[in-house]
């Protein structure tokens, strides 16, 4: 059996949801061993958290620069091989760039950077580094999303002609109406989040999902965003019209002020022979619609699913798989790539997905600011 891949994590300490998600996901297929990192900006909290989760403290570093310096002193067969970046958005680019320049593989939370220009620089850095880079558009790891992708690519629903994606949350509703709270939340601070909140945080998930499952690229978009208050600099709601090649059109609706909504991410793809619908809050059901047969509901783990879907299924039919499993499948794909094993090109989102995501965010904001006009996504 091959040795486990040595994993380091930046951020994700304390009660961070994303930190728990990544740690559990990395442990799922017994491919990684968490050996060190910088979980918290405060060193005492950093050490305390490492002790809490049972990680030896000899490779828990004071800060990111010390992390790089000390790890590079170690022999290559002891050095951390891949680093997960779970910090606030504004730290993604400088950390990822230095990690790539230092020869590390990287798993980065989205949005990958805070600007499209930074994303392009990162792409050039990766080309020189020749390492592995993954962006955690988590939902691409769900078995039934992968089944949707395979069914579309093999023509089960025919030629795609209509796309409708919705991502609704309500978590920012109690914050946005309080002037003090909206001024002190990092998600609404352009210095820490970039130029967009809602589109940058969850709209980019929808954009990536559309291109992932259809295999098509969005060509132009028209965005109408909502900031709700004049002193709020970040969008918290928006509707974006999409145009693809060959007259295929779609819509992406995204909101963080959809009062009472939890994580309502719904994907609907319609072809000339049928349609497919998937909901993140009920991720084990893929609905297949046609005009001449009753509705079909596909579930994970059955032999009728594609090999790609089954490879990401850990449990027998009837045992629900969720977001931890989805992220675990992304980590599994990255492990295959690091070990130079054969893997499906859709097993984890790559630098290209991160770059297009940043371009989409900036073009959506530009479309809105220019008076809700059509703009090109390069």
Tell me the span between the first and last alpha carbons.
44 Å
The computed structural class is alpha/beta
Q: In CATH terms, what is the fold-level topology of the largest domain?
A: Dihydrodipicolinate Reductase, domain 2
Beta-strand content bin: 15-25%
The CATH superfamily of the largest domain is known as Dihydrodipicolinate Reductase, domain 2
Question: Globular, elongated, flat, extended or rod-shaped: what is the shape?
Answer: globular
Task: Please compute the radius of gyration using only Cα atoms.
Answer: 21 Å
**How are the strands of the biggest sheet laid out side by side?**
13-12-11-10-6-9-8-7-14
Strands, count:
14
The CATH architecture assignment of the largest domain turns out to be 2-Layer Sandwich
CATH C-level label of the largest domain: Alpha Beta
Stretches with pLDDT under 50, minimum 5 residues = none
Give the mean pLDDT.
95
What is the succession of H and E elements? EHEHHEHEHEHEHHHHEEEEEEEHHHE
The total domain count is 2
Quickly count the helices.
13
Biggest sheet, in brief? 9 strands, mixed
